[in-house]
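During the reporting period the student researcher (J.K.) took over the structure-prediction task from the postdoctoral fellow and processed the backlog of single-chain submissions. One of the processed entries is reproduced below for the supervisory committee.
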Amino acid sequence: MFRTKTGAAGLSVLSNTLLILLKLVAGILSGSVSIIAEAIHSGIDLLAALIAFVCLRIAGRPADREHPFGHGKVENVSGTIEAVLIFVAAIFIIYEAINRIIAGAIVEYLSMGIAVMAISVAVNIIVSRHLLRVARDSDSIALEADARHLTADVYTSLGVLVGLVVVQVTGLNILDPIIAIGVSLFILRAAYKLTRKAFPPLIDIRLPEDEEALIESTMSEHMGELVGFHELRTRKAGSERYIELHMIMARDASVERAHSLCDHLEEDIKSRLPNTHVTIHVEPCDMECDTCPDSCPEDQKMPGP
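J.K. obtained the following structure tokens:
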């Protein structure tokens, strides 16, 4: 049940809901701003999980008349919205923590807060590892974003846990809002990294260099059958990759031969890059060669820019 993308997102929703309730109760009763910050952090994780759950269901729909390229970019929209929400939450926590430092902070019922944070760490370790595994198997940016949130929650929860133990031992209540600020900085870092990954596909940025190199390598392996290729264009929407290129064939090549080679190349690329859609435009070579393409000049064989 929890091994599919939507099932894993549903598990994240359930675990985050329970942890938020625990943290809010502990934070309010103890007066700990660091625990309340963690509750807000988990609240953002819950919202992210809900967004991921909905967006993954939409992104999984097949292409239709209104969306001929599918719905994959919904995942990137999800990740970008989550990043903005994280930025807002972090700024709010910093504001509240500074107010506590100025006004003075008193923390009570520390044992309860420590127990809640320990439970949070254990649950998020289990759930985040499962989400990352499913995200990698399905190449889902939305699910990966959700998993990264929970992973960040593990570290921030550990920081709060250690801080509460120190406060209990030393009685230095001012450490509580200071820890909350530290949690916020960690959250801001996670938001920045998520923005860098989720937003670029919305403006059709090219695939990573190593993936484009793999495409070029696949094409180059068939240079004995084709003359050259150029106009390589790539982009990504959610987990779906889109590749377009122009392939140069010998002038006397039949339509059947060109079509067969295109099919073969498309399958080769798809076997190396999953979730890929390849479009190849065939062009005739503008050179006259009796033994084309074997006698083709070296610069004609190499792919263009």
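The committee noted the following: The radius of gyration is 26 Å.
J.K. will present the remaining backlog at the next meeting.
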